[in-house]
Fold:
Amino acid sequence: MDTPDRTSGADRTNDTGPSDGPGPADGPGRASRTAGAGSTDGTDADGLLAEQLLRLTRRLHRVQKRHLEPVGITPAQSRLLRTVASFGEPPRMADLAARLEVVPRAVTSLVDGLEAAGRVRRAPDPDNRRAIRIELTDAGRATLGELRNARRAAAEDILDPLTVDQREVLGGLLSALVAPGPEGGC
Structure:
């Protein structure tokens, strides 16, 4: 009597050579070909992986928020402040909305909060009287330094269980997931 092949997805990754489990040599998409909706044990490995990523995202947000509280800034304001600093010249509100992939109204609310705290200021655009540019203030530049330290501490909290090698692998995998595909990303 023949028995069905009950080899696990991890074992099937060895068809290209020795492996200590899924890793960079397995290539993009390998997990979905070896496990998932069609796996022999009936699990939805891709669905479980997606759930783990969502849980990690929520945890990262909570940890980051905790580290940003002493700075007196929210994660969204932090992202906006870093984005303003990334431009060569003070950006327009529309530039910020496009870079952050949010609606302009969301940028307006964030700028309002940062301006009230003295971290940015609105300035007229010299080339277009109707446009407003967002400039960092001295307090905003000082806050960027505090943000770097807070982000580093938050990352260490999250990544603490991983070895240096595991962090490198994770970085590569996340880069592959973050890079937009032919459809233009999420």
